[in-house]
Amino acid sequence: MSPEPIGQPPSDLEGISSQETSLVFRTFTADTAFALGTHLRNRLHAVSPKPAVINISLANSNQTLFHACSHPGVRPDNDVWIARKRKTVLRWACSSYYIHKRFEGDEQRFATTCGLGNQATEYAIHGGGVPVRVEGVEGVVAVVVVSGLKQEEDHMVVVEGMEDCIREMKKTGVYLAE
After folding, report:
1. What's the angle, vertex CA 13, arms to CA 159 and CA 47, rounded to 5?
2. What pLDDT, in 10s, does the model give residues 126-144?
3. Could you give the CA distance from residue 10 to residue 21 in angstroms, rounded to a whole number?
């Protein structure tokens, strides 16, 4: 049986924002990150032959909680994209895909509007970086990033994985791999 294909993201800012607002964990620990990361790695391995990198790190310390590849063949450039997408999520507290849609993919307008100057290349306005939020905690707790597929797929595989973990937690009280 073939795995379910990765879904399509909303095309409007309101839809993307609504999607992100629904992604709130009850708790988020190293065990949660491992469960989510393993789930994402297995899903990517099953759904696409293209190599991708999955990274989950804490927002306040850069501490990596999970880092893996879905297939052989990733390049060092994938880690550069991970860092740039992560930095975008942390600065604007929303997904890198939201920022992409907000600026219609226009990196020059993004850099000018945000006054980034020479720092513009430190950020990526391509899908794949999604903030982790936790009930009762203000701000972003961690960032989940996927790099290697089309940006819409990078974004949606993370969103779907987070939805799966949150749904499993509400249903059973534990995350997927615990």
Report:
1. 30
2. 999 999 999 999 999 999 9
3. 13
